[in-house]
From TrEMBL:
InterPro entries: 3-oxoacyl-ACP_synth-2 (IPR017568), Beta-ketoacyl_synthase (IPR000794), Ketoacyl_synth_AS (IPR018201), Ketoacyl_synth_C (IPR014031), Ketoacyl_synth_N (IPR014030), PKS_Beta-ketoAc_synthase_dom (IPR020841), Thiolase-like (IPR016039). This is 3-oxoacyl-[acyl-carrier-protein] synthase 2. CDD domains: KAS_I_II. Keywords: Acyltransferase, Fatty acid biosynthesis, Fatty acid metabolism, Lipid biosynthesis, Lipid metabolism, Transferase. It is an enzyme of class 2 (transferase). GO terms for molecular function: 3-oxoacyl-[acyl-carrier-protein] synthase activity. Pathway: Lipid metabolism; fatty acid biosynthesis. It catalyses: (9Z)-hexadecenoyl-[ACP] + malonyl-[ACP] + H(+) = 3-oxo-(11Z)-octadecenoyl-[ACP] + holo-[ACP] + CO2; a fatty acyl-[ACP] + malonyl-[ACP] + H(+) = a 3-oxoacyl-[ACP] + holo-[ACP] + CO2. Involved in the type II fatty acid elongation cycle. Catalyzes the elongation of a wide range of acyl-ACP by the addition of two carbons from malonyl-ACP to an acyl acceptor. Can efficiently catalyze the conversion of palmitoleoyl-ACP (cis-hexadec-9-enoyl-ACP) to cis-vaccenoyl-ACP (cis-octadec-11-enoyl-ACP), an essential step in the thermal regulation of fatty acid composition. Pfam families: ketoacyl-synt, Ketoacyl-synt_C. PANTHER family: 3-OXOACYL-[ACYL-CARRIER-PROTEIN] SYNTHASE, MITOCHONDRIAL, POLYKETIDE SYNTHASE-RELATED.
Length: 415
């Protein structure tokens, strides 16, 4: 069966660098850090007292009081990013065959804030079970996809992918394939996460996964730097409307880029650590390139997972060498988590958007905060350190890897 081409015709985001695509792209190019002291709760007793929070977010500016009661923060962020993408795409839902439009969303954790607040109220209330009727619907990870579909009447494929920090890349790959195979004409995809709360920060602290650079939060996320000490947790959402190419052309849609391929693999190695040689990363990248009908020499830019953890960064670099060989020296490589922090299950969505920026604007976003390159990393690599670089990017690759050894890679092409 001939596979159909899939393109991006609408984009949206709310993340630590901006509450719109325009803000996000501007701050990516400038190399702005989204990190700062935690305001969502009192972090005084926590090892890490900072995060990459949204700026100036007020739910009542987007939802009425009844809606706020029904939506966990991760669903609120999803709905906001989705609305931007729908508006940007120019689609009119009432004119579409809604059974051919789906929603496949990614979230690694879902409604952690809701779970925390409900259990906290149970304990503080003397263990009397007065749970909200919205507790379960707000908490479960699939509900963001459900809320988006209900808002627009999209009745095509609808579910959530959950694979830790690889979640939204898996959502995009599934969306790509459903459209390729003729199962849908459009799918709204992406991811959202809202885990900056006591159990989120405390849980990652207990694993020694988060940076504790409390005296200088904006420089805490420092991928590839010798002095990195963990990732910086972030929050937010990214949305992309994927559409079959001929369908998009027929309605005169603007097209940002083509989603050309995807790859997935498992490390089968450790609960939280990556394979130290990057074997799973290598397979995921090579499978994605092959799925796109390309050669590794066609790739110009790699937006790496690059979390700023001592083990993870080195493993990914090894995977890149194994996948790209000598072509690695022709690549621009960067980690936008140095600016946004790590949005967990939503990371892939906003990093795909960073690739869209590179493809459409010819600007590769930087890896900021690199002051002392890790001596175990080849200094001849172009890691796009500290300053954005201009380049005619024709093909970009975006990696996301998750606890449990989940690896997912998406390839985007310039139109």
């Amino acid at each position: 069966m001939k596979q159909r081409r899939v393109v991006i015709t609408g984009i949206g985001t709310i993340n630590p660098l901006g509450n719109s695509i325009e803000e996000y792209f501007t701050n990516l190019e400038k190399g702005v850090s989204g990190a700062g002291p935690i305001t969502h709760f009192d972090p005084s007793n926590f090892k890490t007292k900072f995060a990459c929070e949204l700026k100036g977010y007020e739910p009542n500016n987007f939802f009425d009081r009844k809606e706020v009661r029904k939506y966990d923060l991760y669903s609120q962020y999803a709905l906001i990013a989705a609305e931007q993408a729908v508006q940007d795409s120019g689609i009119e839902p009432e004119k579409l065959d809604l059974e051919r439009v789906g929603v496949i969303w990614g979230s690694g954790i879902g409604g952690l804030e809701t779970f925390y607040q409900e259990v906290k109220s149970y304990v503080e209330g003397g263990f009397i079970p007065r749970y909200s009727p919205f507790f379960i619907p707000k908490m479960i990870a699939d509900l963001a996809a459900g809320h988006i579909s209900m808002k627009y009447g999209f009745r095509g494929p609808n579910y959530c992918t959950v694979s830790a920090c690889a979640s939204s890349n898996h959502a995009m790959i599934d969306s790509l394939n459903y459209i390729r195979w003729g199962k849908a004409d459009m799918i709204l995809t992406g991811g959202s996460e809202a885990a900056i709360n006591p159990p989120g920060v405390g849980g990652f602290n207990s694993m020694q996964a988060l940076s504790t650079r409390n005296d200088d939060p904006q420089k805490a996320s420092r991928p590839f730097d010798a002095d990195r000490d963990g990732f910086v947790i972030g929050e937010g959402a990214g949305a992309l409307l994927l559409e079959e190419y001929e369908h998009a052309v027929a309605r005169g849609a603007k097209i940002y880029a083509e989603v050309a391929g995807g790859g997935m693999s498992a490390d089968a190695y450790h609960l939280t650590a990556p394979d130290p040689e990057g074997k799973g990363a290598k397979k995921s990248m090579l499978d994605a390139v092959a799925d796109a009908g390309l050669k590794v020499e066609d790739i110009d830019y790699v937006n790496v997972h690059g979390t700023s953890t001592p083990v993870g960064d080195i493993a990914e670099i090894k995977g890149l060498f194994a996948a790209f060989g000598d072509h690695i020296y022709n690549l621009n490589i960067s980690s936008t988590k140095s600016m946004t922090g790590h949005l967990l299950g939503a990371a892939g969505s906003i990093e795909a958007l960073a690739c869209v920026m590179a493809l459409t604007k010819g600007i590769v976003p930087p890896t900021i905060n690199n002051e002392n390159l890790d001596p175990n990393i080849d200094p001849k690599l172009n890691l796009t350190l500290n300053v954005a670089q201009k380049r005619d990017v024709k093909c970009a690759l975006s990696n996301t890897f998750g606890f449990g050894g989940h690896n997912s890679t998406v390839v985007l092409k310039k139109m």
